[in-house]
Design goal:
Elements lengths: L10 E10 L7 H14 L5 E5 L2 E5 L7 E7 L2 E7 L4 H18 L7 E12 L5 H9 L26 E5 L6 E8 L16 E10 L7 H35 L1
Antiparallel strand pairs: 1-5, 1-6, 2-3, 3-4, 4-5, 6-9, 7-8, 8-9
Helix pairs in contact: 1-2, 2-4, 3-4
Length: 250
């Protein structure tokens, strides 16, 4: 069974991003040695893919639970979709933070920031923006902005994707962001989502400097714990549950 968060949505995932100041190595031998090392530790991660601007290693997406990593110019991203537990997800992400610096010749001086993201996908066949508007904004001052009259030519919401950012430390080095992501429409407002979900993201980020690369594992633990607390105390009751109720009622 997946985490308790998985019971609240279609898919739940934990992602990380290690952002660096200099370009990541892109030489064929370096990348292949790194991906081969990961694949030996996690044999299911055996699909090597090239996407726009990144090289990726993945496990099979045919399975409900899968892992991936992506090497981009200025960072390494990793993801664990529908993990059995937050502990299992932490084990994966910490392993990547342990392996990557050695094989990619990273330095503590090079670390810009580390972030952990908890993501929730909600299946929704209705108009995403109208659902989010009704759930979060309809009875607020912001909601009054789109109440421009009734009748045949009444205003219709086209884009409702709130983002909230806050500092969690006095110096601003630790930050959190809540985001609601609806799927794109055509330029004239016609839905073109092809069954894609509404996504809710909580990202907690910590900026460097960092004294040693061994601290990254500790940073991950702190950021993931903060994500867990903010999700259970804020995101689930104040974002996810209202949107879920609006989907059900629509």
């Amino acid at each position: 069974m997946a985490t308790s968060y998985g019971a609240l949505c279609t898919d739940f995932y934990v992602n990380t991003k290690l952002a660096v100041k200099m370009d990541m190595p892109s030489e064929r031998e370096t990348v292949l040695h790194f991906f081969d090392r990961v694949s030996k530790s996690l044999p299911t991660m055996n699909r090597f893919r090239r996407y726009d601007g990144e090289l990726a290693l993945e496990s099979s997406r045919a399975e409900q639970e899968y892992r991936w990593l992506a090497l981009r110019q200025h960072g390494l991203r990793t993801g664990h979709v529908n993990p059995e537990s937050l502990e299992a997800s932490a084990e994966f992400h910490k392993l990547m933070l342990e392996i990557a610096p050695f094989h990619l010749t990273l330095s503590a001086l090079d670390v810009d920031y580390l972030e952990v993201l908890f993501g929730f996908d909600l299946e929704c066949e209705q108009d995403h923006d109208e659902v989010v508007f009704e759930a979060l904004l309809a009875d607020s001052k912001l909601g009054n902005l789109v109440k421009l009259g009734g009748g045949e030519h009444a205003a219709k919401v086209l884009d409702v994707q709130p983002v909230f950012g806050l500092s969690l430390s006095e110096g601003g080095e630790t930050q959190a962001y809540y985001e609601v992501k609806t799927r794109p429409r055509s330029r004239r407002g016609k839905a073109s989502r092809n069954g894609e979900p509404i996504s809710l993201f909580l990202t907690v980020r910590r900026y460097g400097p960092i004294e040693s690369l061994e601290e990254l594992s500790h940073w991950y633990s702190e950021l993931a714990a903060t994500c867990d607390t903010l999700c259970s105390e804020r995101l689930v009751p104040d974002l996810l549950n209202p949107i879920t109720r609006a989907i059900t009622a629509a």
